[in-house]
Amino acid sequence: MRTRLLLISHPATAAQRKGAFPADDPLDAHAIEEAAAFRVANADRLNADLALSSPAPCARETAHALGFAAHAEPALADADYGRWRGRRLLELADEEPDALATWTRDPSAAPHGGESFDALKLRVGGWLDAFEQRGNVIAVTHASVIRAALMHILQTPPATFARIEVPPLAIVELRHNERGWTWWPAPHRHTGLTTTDTTAPAAD
To answer: Which positions make up the signal peptide (predicted)?
Structure first.
């Protein structure tokens, strides 16, 4: 039996819509409404033998809104943004412009004292390499984690980390067989709601 893994990014939180780094933010009413509309629009794809989610409230609440009692998976957690957690990008651009510029260009850098993108990619890649569940699996997680997963299976150079954008409530389909993991682009389905593109900061 082969594996079909759907990675789903949670809707934007209120903090993200203000351009702030994630800080274990819950979903607000608008985000829950978006998730509910997404569930209706993608009902035929949202079937799973197993549902997983990041331990973060926004991911767990998204999984619930999609109709899943998901198991928390630590490997699906967002990157650790250290002292930048909850801070607005515009504030950091004024206070730490050099550190922010380094972080946006160098995947090995973690000037905020947390986790670098290279470290996140290593964590997510290790989880994918050890993945043993078969059948249909849905995992609700963060844009940064999905970006890391794509880079791992496509074996792209580190510098491409800033060139992959994952919007809120995106689906990335991965499949695994004897040849390993492959990426299957999934068509976008309009939900009838307007979802703000809040992939900046470029981590979630």
So the answer is: none
Report CA Rg, the chain.
16
DSSP string, 60-119: HHHHHHTT--PEE-GGGPPP--GGGTT-BHHHHHHH-HHHHHHHHH-TT--TTSS--HHH
- pLDDT above 70 coverage of the chain, percent: 90
Mean pLDDT of 35-57: 96
**Structural domain includes residue 147:** yes
- CATH number of domain containing 140: 3.40.50.1240
- Binned at pLDDT 50, 70 and 90, residue 186 comes out as low
CB 14 within 8 A of CB 25: yes
Residue 152: domain span: 3-80+117-184
pTM score over 0.85: yes
182, β-bridge pairs? 175
